[in-house]
Amino acid sequence: MNKRRLFLQQLGLLSVGLGMAPTLLAQALNEQPSGELNSPEGKAAAAASITSVGLQLYTLREFIQKDVKGVIKKVAKADYQDVETYGYSVKNGYWGVKPKAFAELLKDNDLVSSSGHYDFEEYITKGDTEVIKQYIEAATTLGQTYLTVPFLAKRLRSKADDYRSLAEKLNKAAEICQSANLKLAYHNHDFELASYGKTTGLEILLKETSPALVDFEADLYWVARAGKKATDLFKEHPGRFTMWHVKDMDKNSPNLNTEIGSGSIDYKAIFKEARQAGLKHVFVEQENFAAFMDPFKSIAQSRDYVKKTLLRHT
């Protein structure tokens, strides 16, 4: 029996399948959608129990759109236990695979999906909540806990008031998610850390969204690209950064990624602050690969470093 199957059996997930209620899945993975464990103190305590490493499937975007089954099988072979989806549409599902079939594919490969990146632009610009309900349906089918806002178009972030408006909309969307026992999260890039007077877009979002409703997925590479320290964010906003995107910065070309542990970001220092951040889920992501590197060997190398080296610092 491989380690991934043992991991899931210990949680009792195989017997009930990935179609279980998100609340039950959340409890099994130390994920409480509400209550004391959603407080900063509870989130910090949960960091001590992290044992699995996830992969943001955008890392393999050039492959997964051509061969969904083959890529998922290779992700499992690289010893990942969790995947974060991207690119879902009501018409095409996940790269041409409908949610129910994709959930079965994950189950067959002993994988879970804790989070998904979903396009919220239509909601942000038009206030259409129907699209959120459609995302909730798909996420529930997969057993996901988080609906994550992945990106904010440039035209929607030209001034501080844009972020204040977004914060209000995130709170409303999060209430809809909460009613379905799901959680809303926001994923940053570097532009949220640009200054607007004495504040930044990310500071506005952190201060004007409800900690009980909205979590944040810290993309640690983009924080570093913005010239900021992730550890400072964790100290200033304890418990808010329950998910992390972990990708390293090439030492010679900061605009490029490299395998975790091979770049310039001091991840050992960052992982020491996992409890303060409230970390629950780690997702490896890499937006580019060196010409000589096999992407599937790359993700295995990064996974091993996170698992065997960095998680020991939490």
UniProtKB/TrEMBL annotation:
Top-rank taxon: Bacteria
Keywords: Signal
Signal peptide: 1-28
Pfam families xrefs: AP_endonuc_2
UniProt keyword Signal, yes or no: yes
KW rRNA-binding (keyword) present: no
Domain Xylose isomerase-like TIM barrel: 73-307
Protein name as catalogued: Xylose isomerase-like TIM barrel domain-containing protein
